[in-house]
Amino acid sequence: MKLAATKVPVSTVWTAPDAPRDIDAPAIAAQPDVAGWAKSMDTETRLGLHGRTLTQLLFAEPVLVRTERDGWSEILAPWQPSSQDELGYPGWVPSSHLGELPQSATDPVAIDVPTASLLAEPDGRPLAELSFATVLSSVEHADGYTRVATPDGGSGWIADDALRSVLEPSGPEDRLRLGELFLGLEYLWGGTSAHGLDCSGLIHTVSRVLGMRTPRDAHDQADTLPNIPVDEAQPGDLYFFGRPGKQIHHVGFVSPAGMLHASETGKRLEDAPLTDERRATLVTAARF
């Protein structure tokens, strides 16, 4: 295996090289347009992603490349813990989406707004539009901007007001504040970016911004985080849902209103009271 890093803003991870459909071409292009791809899909088309997409990689995210075949790389994503493989979440991405790891630097920072421009120089021309939860190593600071290391030996600048140190202490209110940035965002199966999130993707990406290495999938989150009685859950904790004899299938942040969560395909991220159906399948809670 070799180490690499995602060199595009968002790379969607697929179950196999032949999983993408014709409509998915923008997502697998050498310079993917994930925002346009997400906007192009109606509910039926989004439902068709089940069994095709797995998760997403963000800019500069490290991966382990297991094999390469016909322009595709089989990878493991170590920043996305998974019970499927102890080295990280497995799947396939276009090889054109991968480059060399960024040069070593210090002071990791995360984008804590929906999207932020990576600039050639402070207040300069844009190089790329990066997603929420992109984590980068900072190199220097100047005039309200931070220079960050990028794949293939490059660097760029991001406005300080779009960044948060992942080493900064956080609390439950930070988890809810960051989750609320995406109220109204349409659910995307396998989504971990500002262009679409699934239920566990919301938890995983918010955790990443706050410097926590949380598993990618809901059932792994339930197995890994400390469980607490449901009636002791407080805002910022997690609710988990499952049916008798079945794997955990849904997760959301406990909120004063009820639950902040990415509901399901065809619906949008919401902060709302638990429905009777949700209450009937609420099986446990967890605390970070």
TrEMBL record:
Domain NlpC/P60: 169-288
Cited PANTHER family: GAMMA-D-GLUTAMYL-L-LYSINE DIPEPTIDYL-PEPTIDASE, MUREIN DD-ENDOPEPTIDASE MEPH-RELATED
Any one of the GO BP annotations: proteolysis
Residue runs in coiled coils: none
Source organism of the structure: Kribbella pratensis
UniProt cross-references to InterPro entries, sorted A to Z: NLP_P60_dom (IPR000064), Papain-like_cys_pep_sf (IPR038765), Peptidase_C40 (IPR051202), SH3_YKFC_2nd (IPR057812)
Keywords: Hydrolase, Protease, Thiol protease
Pfam family, one: SH3_YKFC_2nd
Taxonomic lineage: Bacteria, Bacillati, Actinomycetota, Actinomycetes, Propionibacteriales
Molecular-function GO terms, alphabetical: cysteine-type peptidase activity
Name this protein carries in UniProt: Cell wall-associated NlpC family hydrolase
UniProt similarity note: Belongs to the peptidase C40 family.
